[in-house]
Design a protein that fits this description.
367 residues, alpha/beta, Rossmann fold, 7-stranded parallel sheet, 4-stranded antiparallel sheet, 7 helices
Length: 367
């Protein structure tokens, strides 16, 4: 753990960066949130033989949010699955989709076994989903015709291109024509995480504030499949978004821990989403607790990828669960124009299936 101190040697509260090695179970503000704790991506090397910058270079001149907290947010993602997966056929909106990804198949029926179809209740037409993440591949065939303006807070420009893949995958699950829930919703990429899936709290908050000040018309949903230790500045930015009548859906986190210790998962007005497997068990990595509002499919989720306009990949994580709910929120708003974030949250939780999630975790809702 790297501790940031005052000049007199006193530790500054909350100003620390925990460099989590592969296999570590330590929870921290610098949380590498991959679902698989043995994945090589879960290792931080400072410096290494490839010339990675030192810790002091990484932190030099950086401010972690409006309160001055030094924190490094990370994409709350799972590791890619190397196994190739057949790509389902894109389905016209408002029709029954045959052989969909299992996550879509699961969310439109009460109980197992899956019936190999997805019958959407609506399309999300007229709703914009803002993906605050690593950016999106704006030309991907899953949603290219529905992309609206976004912003890149990493490079400070108007091109939120995705060099990581995480944001593209999330967008595909929320609004994709093949992999997505809300197949007619618009999508905006707001890039706050770099090519490694890392970023500063200041950029995350800036991205959230950008959505609040730039969204002009129609209903909107924000998806945040990212997280780190508790951050008042992020929690406050969530509250500001919901006060502006923008629904915020967030990942619970991948630390197999109580979500109350993480932001934005702990934000009271966000819809916080845990992850389940195809057998309705809580995913082993998923955070839990009373802060979680709902569970959704998050293990082995097939969606769009950033390497080409037709690429796909399979990932694991609460990052993958959250956009299922963000898409459902967009569908609801498409059918209930002007509904408040509280009404959206109430609608989704009230129609959810209860007594289905096994090993949900202490304090978790069973829905």
């Amino acid at each position: 753990m790297l501790i940031i101190e005052e000049s007199d040697g006193a530790t500054i509260e909350f100003r620390y960066v925990d460099l989590t090695n592969a296999g570590s179970t330590t929870n921290s503000v610098f949380e590498v949130g991959f679902a698989d704790p043995t994945d090589s991506n879960n290792t931080v090397r400072i410096p290494d033989s490839n010339g990675d910058p030192s810790a002091s270079e990484l932190l030099s001149g950086k401010s972690g949010g409006s309160t001055g907290v030094w924190s490094y947010s990370v994409a709350d993602s799972g590791s890619p699955s190397p196994a190739p997966t057949p790509t389902p056929t894109p389905t016209p909106i408002n029709t029954i989709q045959p052989d969909p990804p299992w996550g879509l198949d699961r969310i439109d029926q009460r109980s197992l076994p899956l019936n190999s179809t997805f019958t959407p209740a609506g399309t999300g037409s007229g709703v914009t989903v803002y993906v605050i993440d690593t950016g999106i591949r704006t030309t991907h065939t899953e949603y290219a015709s529905r992309v609206v303006a976004g912003y890149d807070f990493v490079d400070d420009d108007s091109d939120p291109s995705d060099c990581n893949g995480h944001g593209t995958h999330v967008a595909g699950t929320a609004v994709g024509s093949t992999y997505g829930v809300a197949k007619a919703a618009s999508v905006s990429g707001v890039r706050v995480l770099n090519c490694s899936g890392n970023g500063y709290t200041s950029d995350v908050v800036a991205g959230m504030n950008w959505v609040r000040t730039n969204h002009s018309s129609g209903d909107a949903v924000v998806n945040m499949s990212l997280g780190g230790g508790g951050s008042k500045s992020i929690d406050d930015a969530v509250a500001a978004l919901t006060s502006a009548n923008i629904t915020v859906v967030v990942a619970a986190g991948n630390s197999n821990d109580d979500a109350q210790y993480y932001s934005p998962a702990r934000a009271p007005t966000a819809i916080t989403v845990g992850s389940t497997t195809s057998t309705d068990a809580r995913s082993s990595f998923s955070n839990y607790g009373s802060t979680v509002d709902i569970f959704a499919p998050g293990s082995s989720i097939l969606s769009a990828w950033h390497t080409s306009n037709t690429a796909s990949n399979t990932l694991n994580g609460t990052s993958m669960a959250s956009p299922h709910v963000a898409g459902a929120a967009a569908v609801y708003l498409g059918l209930n124009t002007g509904a408040t974030p509280a009404q959206v949250a109430s609608a989704l939780t009230s129609v959810s299936t209860t007594d289905a999630v096994t090993s949900a975790g202490s304090g978790s809702p069973d829905r």
